[in-house]
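Re: your question from the hallway

Yes, I did run it. Sequences:
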Amino acid sequence: MTGQIAIIGAGPSGCFLAQALLKAQPDLRVDLIDRLPVPYGLVRYGVAADHQGTKGVTRQFARLFERQGARFFGNVSIGSDVGLEDLRGAYDAVVLAAGLSADRRLEIPGSDLPGVHGAGKLTRALYEHPEAEALPELGARPLIVGNGNVAIDLLRLLAKSPEELEGSDLGQGPTDWLAASGIEEITITGRSPAAAAKFDTVMIKELGKLADVSIRVMDAGESDDPDAQKKLAALDALEGGAGARRITFRFGLTPVAVEGTDRATAVRFATAQGEETLACTSVLTAIGFDTPGDLPRDALLREERDGGLAEGLYATGWFRRGPRGTIPDNRADAGALAERILGALSPDPGKVGAGILAGLDEITDYDGWCRIDSAETANPPPGRCRAKITTREGMLGLARQEDTQ
Amino acid sequence: MNIQVLYGTETGNAEMLAEDIVAELEADHAVAAVNLADFDPSEFDTGTLYLMVCSTYGDGELPASAQPFAEKMAAGKPDLTGVHFGIFGMGDREYDETFNGGPATLAALMTAAGATQLGERIAHDASGAEMAEDLAFPWAEDIVAMAGDALGQAA
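Structure:
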């Protein structure tokens, strides 16, 4: 063994970093620690249920544990179960790859009214995260604030008919919730003109396949920029349809206030022409992500340079860069950071490594995850590829079964 | 037979498949996986079989690691007459319109430069039920068999 590295967070950026580290130095000890009993973070709970191809990246991550010698320590919270400083004392290097799981708040009057929901909170509920809140009532006319890829994912899911969710891993509860949602119209708004909108063109093109919608694109404008022209052309191609659910794209709308007395009933926007108020039955905010506050991110990142925070302490992925960039962008980061970590590594054989976690109850390991994964994929309901175990207790129960076999 | 598995990847899935193909063929052949980002078109050799594995990224575009290769092909305009390749595409039919756009672009680059494509371009669908390697291993064996004749040496 030529050094011990702990990575906090077993999501895609942590896994890609582990992969790069072990590729460069196969005899390294790399431990991935996650607060959930299961690995893969955003791939499991953030990538849309109907984007199973994107989730295929977990086949690479499985190899980390099965062939490259990485270890998984699930159900371990940094702070309450083990302190960050204790972990730094136990390992030669510690990498924060915890992502950003909290919704960035819409800081305008009325944004705390009932009926205003963050996209992250809602998708966690849709994808059956064990700590998710119950799925809320959205009413007939939800309005989405923000039009990045997260917003488009949400729009697509809400607009799909039950048949269009074939092959996904959307659970029974969320499936029933969607079928009973009674959504008639979804308005999606962005601050910038369409040419500068945050979504990827391919996400817009995918909406063209929706079976039961009619789509209107208002004031998309024009552009001289070739990339922007692709976006505009993709939007233009969406126009029309005779489906039951109406989708309206709006641009150049800056939210000023959420209106309503006991719940959100409209959003007031500033526009180039003045102000405009759009009525709605709920407001879904998809304007970025923030730290949930379990780690003092701002303080940790104050001295950050190229992923290095302090001696033997690093950060990667969204935790370092903020909520921008796709899963493969994090892979690109991982190679450079791995080189940097290995260059600075001075292994101390006296360090206890995972021994620091020895006193903790109910840690799950990779074999435990495999038992959970098998249980989830063994007998999925018709039209589904997986039925997620939705509670921490359920996961821990399955993970624990090794003792009884 | 000398074989190079050239891969263009963005998420790493094509790289993993390239490594799997190497593992599958290395008992019988001198075979190595090479990232297209690290490959210069001037290295193409008529005595080597090139198995290309390529994904698609963004709006039907070449993945990041294939882009420098495409630029070098455009700049160097190499004559690849006598060079033989097969191509395996990894895509996701959720994005129907641009499905396998990357490998289609790559195959066109090769044939436009005079290279000969062996076999059909295979397209794996990440949203489908089949594992990439279950399609790719028989494909690789087929291409190797075809190349045995084309390259004029024992497979």
